[in-house]
Design goal:
Structural class: alpha/beta
Number of helices: 10
Strand order of the largest sheet: 6-7-8-3-11-12
CATH class: Alpha Beta
CATH superfamily: P-loop containing nucleotide triphosphate hydrolases
Distance between the termini: 44 Å
Radius of gyration: 19 Å
Amino acid sequence: METETNNIPAIEFRDVSLSFDEKRVLSDINFTLKRGEMIFITGVSGSGKSMLLRLAIALDHPDSGQVLIEGRDVGMLDEPELLEIRSDRMGIVFQEDSLFTGLTVYDNVAYRLDEHRVAEAETAKAVMEVLRFVGLEQEAEKLPAELSGGMRRRLEIARALIGWPSIMLFDEPASGLDPLTAIQVLDLIIRARDIYGISSLYVTKKLDEIPYLATHRAQKSSDGVAIEEAFQKSTAPHTRVMVLDAGRIVFTGSAAEFEGSSLPAVTRLTHADNGTTISSFATSDPWDKTRRPRERIL
């Protein structure tokens, strides 16, 4: 049965279209997110990236076509069934701050488990496990206002990772962060993806994030978990780039194919100023305060 489940795509869009006020937002979207795969979704503002994520987690429904989550057509499910899928199988990190400002770090992470009346001891174990994973176990009793911007973003990720969902959706999770903090967040996402085999959709306009996430992977070692650059295609993580333009998929391919593409919709992105360049870091601990950037060799 496990083998059969692993063969079912994490997410599948079949001929999906969506309009608002007679304006077409998404048109004829077809793609499959395989198990353990990360798909980068990029495009200019207003191209439909965030709306695609909302459909992927069934917060909205298409006008036509099907969205399947682990083989289940979400259009055929009632609200309790959708809530169960979102709670048990999926996590999402929006670019907007969605923390509960009146709750501690611990209670923010525990909120979903408390809603499902999970036993207190089991909740405590799960919460502290994910807080250790994101490096916030010492801040468990603090309020969000007492955290830095990077810590708050890591807390957002911890909330989404509670229970270790099989599918994660990221909507520009490193947006607005300084380069050092951004690389810490990217390393955290790499660790979750590779160590726990999470399938993910990753929306970004910062194109320098794509080659980093596509060429670095997390490896377990005797010292813990190391983030290493994969110099060979055979050892690189399973990733693809998907470009949206005016609500349509206009490109799908590897990160290298994306960077070398001459399609107008792609070159408008790759030849634009896309913000701060992120350097790579030679350390296995993303929370090490002594870590320093080294020049990336391109």
